[in-house]
Amino acid sequence: MADFGIKEALSTLGLEDINNGSSTGTKWFSNGDIIESYSPVDGKLIGKVKASTKDDYEAVMKTATEAFKTWRTKPAPLRGEIVRQFGEKLREKKEALGKLVSYEMGKSYQEGLGEVQEMIDICDFAVGLSRQLHGLTMHSERPGHRMYEQYHPLGVVGIISAFNFPVAVWAWNTALAWICGDVCIWKPSEKTPLCGVACQNIISEVLKENNLPEGISCLVNGDYKVGEMMTKDTRVPLISATGSTRMGKIVAKEVAGRLGKSLLELGGNNAIIVTPDADIKMTVIGAVFGAVGTAGQRCTSTRRLIIHESMYDKVKNAVADAYKQLRIGNPLDENNHVGPLIDKDAVKNYENALEKVVAEGGKIVVEGGVLSGEGYESGCYVKPAIAEAGNYYEIVQHETFAPVLYLLKYSGDVENAIALQNGVAQGLSSAIMTNNLREAERFLSVQGSDCGIANVNIGTSGAEIGGAFGGEKETGGGRESGSDAWKVYMRRQTNTINYTTDLPLAQGIKFDL
Ligand code: UN1
């Protein structure tokens, strides 16, 4: 099989056969078990990473806590300058890192590049923000008093990220946290540990070149047990966790139990509503990319198409026809649209979902199946499938993290479609395809979509970093990346200064001595 430049990419990113998984910036160590990273692309071992032990974690935490004391005193625009340099390095390494993302995670090379672009974009955004960490000033009710608020950094931010966006989600968090004056400890998914090591190698160059102390950018590796060290740790005021709702509920409970803050970005069950006024061509592109992009493993992936009965057959046939054009295979080969699922467990979940939807009475429109034979040796390649289903089906109520698209029919008004769209436990992304202003505005109104993201004439996935990203209900309520998401990484302090010689009390209370 062609190498697709993987060897070169691994060397550009400073990856070795066996890598230490704990780092405080430029220093590396690790005493835990070996995590092997196999590519879902060809089933080959890419490399190994040594997990972090409790002692490794303690060493990292101690260094991070120390680093915070100096990092927080550096003016925010100077912290922004470090993030600017990081963005520059990412530009240099974009192809190599995009390739590694594609090879270790399985998404298409184009999507791998897109993910690195999201990192670059958030760096640019954070650089600008580093001069805009604004607080408000208020008018005091007392004469000769001044009142204002300011934002201070929180301390050590713990980042737990998922396999599906193995590099970008870390960058969303860490770029903002750094300009805010926080230091970060990142635990990447144990399914994509090399992406974590590669990112740390990139930032370590910037840290070295600027003579920065150890502890600003830290990495730990391992399974949920390492995650637990972070969630239970009172030295971590904020945990930002991305992953399943099941994981999020455990993290939320643990962190809330110690009154820490958590920023949760969990499962989605995203729908596109297709109204009688939809543009079919746009609908097909939005739905197909949404459903099969990243092999259906984005939290924003389109899981449900809610189609008006008058358009139902037309849309169903058009989407099914488009599926015939999909080429499934090595994601590094740019002729292919769909790569593998992350591993064989994911394949099993996909198969279970298809079995379940049929058992519940659903009808298969585009047949699924696991691919085998030449090019599919890893056993992780599956055919994107489409099934007609009911919104009330148990399987439709859950997030199927695979390329399975459920078709639902609605009749009457757009309100009926919105009710179906909102009738699930998750609330991340949503979309409506319509050229009808009334329908679009109703979808966006207070009685409309209950999701964190609501799009008109765009699919459910592929959000830009400039907006706040996240969702409601079982998606966890967190907001990351753009808009004012930076505020989560800081603590707000209200300051009132009296510049008179009297001490008047608020609310006009008299207290004379
Ligand atoms: C995720 O799947 O966790 O909106 C993040 C999108 C991407 C991010 C997805 N920008 O699809």
Automatic annotation (TrEMBL):
Residues 33-494 form the Aldehyde dehydrogenase domain. The keyword Oxidoreductase applies. The keyword Transport does not apply. Its EC number is 1.2.1.3. It is an enzyme of class 1 (oxidoreductase). Pfam families: Aldedh. GO terms for molecular function: aldehyde dehydrogenase (NAD+) activity. Keywords: NAD, Oxidoreductase. Coiled coil: none annotated. The active site is at 265. Homotetramer. Belongs to the aldehyde dehydrogenase family. This is aldehyde dehydrogenase (NAD(+)).
